[in-house]
Design goal:
By secondary structure, the protein is an alpha/beta fold. It folds into 2 domains: 109 residues, Urease, subunit C, domain 1; 291 residues, Alpha-Beta Barrel (TIM Barrel), CATH 3.20.20. The protein is built from 15 helices and 17 strands. The strands form 2 sheets. Strands 1, 2, 3, 4, 5, 14, 15, 16 and 17 form a 9-stranded mixed β-sheet that branches. An 8-stranded parallel β-sheet has the order 6-7-8-9-10-11-12-13, with helices on both faces. Strand 2 and strand 3 form a beta hairpin. The chain is globular.
Amino acid sequence: MKILFKNITLMYGDGSTDRNMYVVVNDEKIESIGKELPEGTFDRVISGENKLLCPGFYNCHTHTPMTLFRGYAENLPLSRWLHEKIFPAEDKLYPEAVSVASTLSIAEMIKNGTVSFSDMYFFCEDIIEATAAAGIKANISRSTVAFDPNITAQTDDRFLEAVKLYEKYHNSADGRIKIDMSIHAEYSTVPSACRYISDFALEKGLSMHVHLSETKSEHDACVEKYGITPTEFFERNGVFRVPVTAAHCVHLTDNDMKILAQNGATAVHNPASNLKLGSGIARLEKMLSERINVTLGTDGAASNNTLDVMKEAYLAAILQKGSTGRTDTVPSGAFIQMLTQNGANMQGRADCGKLAVGARADLVMLDFDMIHVMPVYDYCDAFLYSANASNVVMTMVDGKILYENGEYQTIDIEKLKYRFRQITENYFT
């Protein structure tokens, strides 16, 4: 299908903008970008009056089935939140509940302009099937934990499950689905597991998804146990031999940041979840000064409580100003990069995350003719500080429109809501 966006304002992945532009999407790719009306015929022409077109957003750390627990475990610190509420609730999970909850999460993300997400959880086949059916992209990893110091690759059922996911699903759904490896966290694993999981990732050219220094107690307990930080623990045990997606990174030391930078790792900033669970505020400005690839994530809906990554960009921007007392050190465009280009780079999607000829047509269109945005003096600043997910009027992945003006093209939203209500009404009985 050939689509023309006519007379539209473009915001590129670095936050720069052009007005009154023409963009042609031909099948799954961007065919042309220019100031002149292109020749030819089009299956559809979309007016860009008062609209902004930009690369689609990346939610770089989440747990999609956890919409089941949205609002269930409120006002608790992370340790109590996990042990008293979430772990017992997760023990009751079953495939249909995971499938329906994942689809609901995906619908929320599509509505909010997300074109790809990185998920760490279990029941991964159900998450993958929901993702493939909805048309969105994702890097999905089976979260592995290992407490037995004698565990081996041959006896680790979670690791073997991750290997099977790789063999069956990596680069499936026309490349939309990628499989990462995952070590849940330093406190939930042993050195030998770090080694054989990262060995496999290195052999297959896969990335690794971990939780890293989310809380001060987690960070300090590792120092007390091993005499090194969680980042140094993972480095010692070979994890940074592969590209690492490190979620949270709230309590990194200066040396930890150097390790991430030297190894090309990505730090996923999750400001809403970190604030809500009382975990703290990541030192964003310092991470950027070390040239770490920083992205944004929502975490799961149980700890956020939304999957709106535009909100994360806004929070990240104002938090770094308020926490440092400096308002001009990180430009607005840096947060657009975190939301788009940096996420694509993290996921290993070199032809995504940008508005460029030949790139995948993963695009979001926003309506700027709304009173909470007016007036617009600078489109990048208006996007970051005034706009929100309600401005999203279209989400496109690989040139296919998944959501437009409140209508889903790949999800029966009313049927989904009905089944989700049925599951949640009986889940805790």
